[in-house]
Amino acid sequence: AQRVTQPEKLLSVFKGAPVELKCNYSYSGSPELFWYVQYSRQRLQLLLRHISRESIKGFTADLNKGETSFHLKKPFAQEEDSAMYYCALLTGGGNKLTFGTGTQLKVEL
Amino acid sequence: DTAVSQTPKYLVTQMGNDKSIKCEQNLGHDTMYWYKQDSKKFLKIMFSYNNKELIINETVPNRFSPKSPDKAHLNLHINSLELGDSAVYFCASSRQGSNEQFFGPGTRLTVL
């Protein structure tokens, strides 16, 4: 069965410090992974997906199949990055998103 | 505005009642979903419909019954509400061939 693990419930960093939100997955098929973000009082929205290999709002994430990881990174945290971040794995023929438990990122001044 | 909308935003009700949450998307998407986010912020899929046909039905009590009158709407009816049903319920939609899901603002259900 597929599973997504985000080991940190809360990550607190200072503004300007590097950020790494960890995500590991377990899936027998070819994984398709995403990061979703939920800012305070806003709806959940897609941040980035591994197939795009893009940088959004300074965030990047590289799929490492050997380590079954998809960690989210940003070199310099900004206050507006404070939010709940969910790693998600797409399965079920492309319809089912399995979410991790989420990591609350708090960027302090 | 093109988006996924849900009503109501907040729902407070007594245990044992029956309630419905409505979801509408005007994005022209084919697939719609219901997710439950519990008090620990854990987000889990409940149902998925594609063109009004049920395609994903996770282990959800029979008290929960989704209904899709057309591909732009997916409603969630809950019978005999229990305390453990208290959560935020999110609706989402996606376009055929695209992996991005667009989420609604959520409905916070509180069962007393």
What would a concise description of this structure say?
The complex is a heterodimer of chains A (109) and B (112). Chain A has 109 residues and is mainly β.
Describe what you observe in this structure.
The complex is a heterodimer of chains A (109) and B (112). By secondary structure, chain A is mainly β. Chain A is 0% helix and 45% strand. Chain A has no helices and eleven strands. In chain A, strands 2, 5, 6, 9, 10 and 11 form a six-stranded mixed sheet that branches. Chain A starts with a strand and ends with a strand. By secondary structure, chain B is an all-beta fold. Chain B is built from no helices and eleven strands. Chain B has strands at residues 4-7, 10-13, 19-25, 31-37, 43-50, 53-57, 64-70, 73-78, 87-94, 102-103, 107-111. The model of chain B has no long low-confidence stretch (mean pLDDT 92). The A-B interface holds A 32, 34, 42-46, 49, 84, 86, 90, 92, 94-99, 101-102, 104 and B 4, 31, 33, 40-45, 48, 50, 55-56, 90, 92, 94, 99-106.
Biggest sheet of chain A, open or closed, and with what strands and sense? 6 strands, mixed
What is the number of helices of chain A? 0
Low-confidence stretches of chain B: none
Mean pLDDT of chain A: 92
Largest interface: A-B, 21 and 24 residues
Largest sheet of chain B: 7 strands, mixed
Strand content of chain B: over 45%
Low-confidence stretches of chain A: none
What is the count of β-strands of chain A? 11
The overall average pLDDT of chain B, rounded, is 92
Structural class of chain A: mainly beta
Helix content of chain B: under 10%
CA-based shape of chain B: globular
Strand share of the residues of chain A? 35-45%
| Oligomer state of the chains in this structure | heterodimer
Number of DSSP helices of chain B?
0
**N-to-C SSE string of chain B, H for helix and E for strand:** EEEEEEEEEEE
**Overall 3D geometry of chain A?**
globular
